[in-house]
Amino acid sequence: MSFHWMLSLLQRGDQISMRREAHEKKYPDAKVISLGIGDTTQPIPSIVTSAMAEYALALSTPEGYQGYGPEQGQKSLRKAIADVVYPNMGIRDTEVFISDGAQCDIARLQMMFGRDVTIAVQDPTFPGYVDNGVIMGQTGPAAVDEESGGSRYAGIEYMRCAPENAFFPDLSRVRRTDVIFFCSPNNPTGHAASRDQLRQLVDFARRNGSIVVFDSAYASYVSPGAGGDDGDKPRSIYEVPGAREVAIEISSFSKFAGFTGVRLGWAVVPDELLYADGTRVARDFDRVVTTCFNGASSVAQAGGLACLATEEGRAAVARVVAGYKENARVLVGTFQALGKEVYGGDDSPYVWVRLFPGRRSWDVFAEILEKTHVITVPGSGFGPGGEGFVRVSAFNSRDRVVEACARLTSFLA
Ligand SMILES: *Cc1c(COP(=O)(O)O)cnc(C)c1O
Predict the structure, then answer these.
(1) Which residues pair with 144 in a beta bridge?
(2) Ligand 1 center–CA 98 separation, angstroms
């Protein structure tokens, strides 16, 4: 175990909050608006919280008390996910493993894969895949770009996803790896891969005998028909033929239902997904789940079921997502009106923008904070390919987003 590699990880995390603190000291009267960290802000619909409250209160009664549940999750929730999230995709409830969140599943999957696998990630991407790989010892040392703060670890295949390639790598130039982490709609770029792009990804994995870990945490933000390509963007990798033999899908109630604090997610590990020796990956994942995790909170699972089981529940959580999507539309419209190069927002709560071409992400972040008291996230924190961009999050109230847009407009116009 090489602790100095982990150190480079740990130092990165707190930079934004440190800068925010310094800023608030310098301008004690400024109203800072955070469009930074990817955390939900709006209340959870009461149809969901009442189900949790009811379940929790029943725990105080002899009839309603329950202890450990199945480590893989409650049957009713596994079935609701298979039926509602994966209709007509041939996903069986027994292939759905309920968890305490996608971040935790990334860690458990990386633990299952072990130290000796090679991994590929999109660049830029959500940092969890790389960071857990670093902790597992899959990588060599980081080469940190002192100026941008973007780091690149030896041994990881970074698949550049930029406006120039429609946010999808030229796979003929990607080195074969054992595992490919792929997030769509992508955090941070907001790009939802087209059906054709996902077909290419699945074919590539099948040719190479690679496992795709498909992160669909933002699937509920996909707008059919919106955005670029032909508007045909799958919400799940299992919409693509052949994916069952190569892909694990991880997903979450966090951005779908405001469960970032409640904690609930799932992983789908299809029965047909096999290692090279013919053994089932699901068997190993089941072993990891039963060994390192005793199952998700039963209260959280009661809430998850309320999000999915009734039309009313589904509509209530969809309204919250629609509100964030409207915020994203307001942000995109603002940057477009200012003539800025802007991406995302159609299929995700994230807007990806190059405000000052040629300037570094951290510079742009600092200038926006200084002049408008608005917090963004420097793109270079998501990998070297994010340099030059900032990510602007739609996770806030409409009022604050509108206020932030007014400030950005008076500064940038
Ligand atoms: C927020 C986020 C997650 C984390 O989900 P949890 O279920 O809260 O752990 C996973 N993947 C991506 C891409 C995210 O943005």
Answers:
(1) 151
(2) 14
* Protein residue with its CA nearest to atom 11 in ligand 1: 217
CA distance 103 to 11: 19
**Are 49 and 300 a contacting pair, CB within 8 Å?**
no
Say how many residues make up the chain: 413
Q: CA dihedral defined by 19, 24, 26, 27, rounded to 10 degrees?
A: 140
Are 78 and 93 in contact by the 8 Å Cβ rule? The answer is yes
Q: What is the pTM of this model?
A: 0.96
Burial class (CB in 10 A: 0-12, 13-18, 19+), 154: exposed
Q: Which residues line ligand 1 (CB under 6 A)?
A: 38, 101-104, 126, 183, 187, 215, 217, 252, 254-255, 260, 265
Report whether 152 contacts 130 (CB < 8 A).
Answer: no
Domains and CATH numbers, the chain: 5-43+313-412 (3.90.1150.10), 51-310 (3.40.640.10)
Reported as a single tens digit per residue, the pLDDT across 124-183 is 999 999 999 999 999 988 887 665 556 789 999 999 999 999 999 999 999 999 999 999
Taking only the tens place, the pLDDT of each residue in 206-261 is 999 999 999 999 999 999 776 555 679 999 999 999 999 999 999 999 999 999 99
